Fold this sequence. Notes:
globular; 9 helices
Amino acid sequence: MFSGRKKVYIEKSNKQKPSKKEMKRLVRRELYMIMLSVFAVSAVILGSSYAIFSSVNKSKDYNQIDLGTLVVEYEDTGDGLGDIINLADVYPVSDATGLASNGYKFKITDTGTLGSNYTIRIADDEAMIEADECEGNQLPKEVLKYSLNGGPIHVLGETDNYTLDTGFLEAGKTRNYELKMWISDTAGNEILGKHFHGKIVVELTANAPGPNVFASDDWATIINNVRNGNTSKYNVGDTKEIKMGGEWGTQTLRIANKTTTEDCTRADFSETACGFVIEFKDIITRHRMSQENQNLNVGGWEQSSMREYLNTEIYSALPEDLKLGIIKTRAISGYGPNDSANFKTEDFLYLFSITEIYHDIYAERVTMLDSAITATRQLDYYRGQAVTTTFYDAAKKQPTGGGSAFWFLRTAALNNLWGHTCVNTIGGLSWSSPTDQNGGVSPAFRIG
């Protein structure tokens, strides 16, 4: 797909932009495509016969901007308008089709000695809008969807300042990106003939402040500090409130882990207790584990209704600035009597396993229930609280509104076809029917 590679050094430029006449000529020539164009540090342009996304300039005219020591390296199609790549069909498409489309790959490298904070966002290209005389005919950004690096789907119009990502690059380090963008299949005929002139803008930002207090630092600061390994003042057990959408309201998060062991790099080892892990301190809602009309633990965590629920409804209710830092996590999960191998999934939100809560993994009660006891480790928080299957008070959680409830783990009971493991109302290890709709939900995720 990619015919060449260019390296763009971001520094001062004296190049002149093309004339307005030339820009209009290029607009007329390219109004039939949906495409992405990256202009040096910056530019996505899309074109379509359904909603018109068009480039009016060659990338060579924008290949140098005074931004310091960042280097942007991108794949080049070598087409007439510069560095462009098809994103999707010319019509609105489903999310599945959009995610399966060819993305645009680029990477950012810091060539300095101190490292850099940066922001990637989508911006309107005012010069192109003026040249095309379409200021009042712009495509609503609420119909544009995107996914960055295979991550969750976002609606561009619902992001803060159309920000795709923020990050910190250590000196000499590189970060890779792949952006996929498409028109939502919910868009109607009202977008026919609409235009969108935009660009990817990579901006240097002021150095993020160092860690202060987990409870009060904003998510951009926390994410940057975690990515830079600068978490000395964020302690396991620290809490922070967030406001979720929908029925979930205000909830409390807790740092559950900061340690990364050598095992965490193994392909057969779960990442769910590796790195910077955040859990919900309380039980935030109740939900069944199994699919509807499925009263067995067949398919375990991988095929569970709970997994789908967490990674769609619960995830979508999280604050947007927090979701920018949540990364996919490899989860290895135990199986039940009707399955024969541990489950391996990639999740944004997940539940903990038995071993991640209880330390005595070779206790008879654990080995009878969990087939994946050596595929993960105990989380720092529960290790610090010395939680075992005998001493377990610190594993107890309460519903946000008060009362008591058990909360589900992701481990299917190894010795019981009708059982799924959980932490009971006093903190002990137990199991319940996977169809129990009173099962508590207390998810976790990783920042990275």
